[in-house]
Amino acid sequence: MGPIQSRAPRGGFTLTEMLTVVAALVIVLGLMVSLAWDVRRQSAERLTKDLLVKLDALMAQYAARHNRQLPQVTPFVETSNAAEATRPGGAWLKAEEDLPDEEQLLETAQLNNRDFVLALRAEAAEPSPELFGPLAGSMYDEVMVRDAWGTPIVFMPAMHPAVGMALENRPFFFSAGPDRKFRTRDDNLYSYEQTSGGPGSQAGVGIGGVGTGGSAR
After folding, report:
1. Beta-bridge partners for 175
2. pLDDT for residue 209 is more than 60
3. How far apart are alpha carbons 56 and 131 in whole angstroms?
4. Domain ranges across the chain
5. Does the pLDDT at position 203 exceed 50?
6. Global pTM?
7. Are 190 and 172 in contact, with CB atoms under 8 Å apart?
8. Closest C-alpha to 201, from 54, 61, 60, 63
9. 172 pLDDT exceeds 50?
10. Model confidence over 47-77: pLDDT tens digits?
11. Among 99, 121, 131, 172, which residue's Cβ finds the most Cβ atoms within 10 Å?
12. H helices within 75-203, ranges in order?
């Protein structure tokens, strides 16, 4: 009887190796998801910023045709005493606390949005889905125009310290941003910030024919 030959052990992964591979896959998957969200966020911001620029230009054309008169729209907030906000001891130093809650602001924003969309559509020679640019149905349904996160764009005929303030008290449009909250200004997007001569902006386009400048946000 010949010598017994031992069978070579079969190759395979140890538990440690398998856990290492799984951990690496989890890390790669996490990076891919994070990158996808970042790309989506940047795309949404770009779409909304382009829309704000377009709206600003359309309102400038409206004002030029109507001797610098703006359309009558439902006010998002009261702005008649906004000039006092920039003065020491003004009555609106606590304007942010005086704003309605988000639910009420959203209702007012919807009315405001419908009014200015109707006014701008009435000015168009041939109103079409392309009036505000190539927008998806979720952003424009021929009744309301929304930002990329589904919140109505708001038209402000004048400044408000808790909402936004363009130089020379110019009218402006703004978006509630990715958090969809009007009161949190850190992520809000403003038309006067997109038309101040930066990359991709339309410098010199201003509502009522007034050249645009920086913001007093």
Report:
1. 189
2. no
3. 13
4. 46-80+98-209
5. no
6. 0.72
7. yes
8. 54
9. yes
10. 999 999 999 999 999 999 999 999 999 999 9
11. 172
12. 95-98, 102-123, 191-194
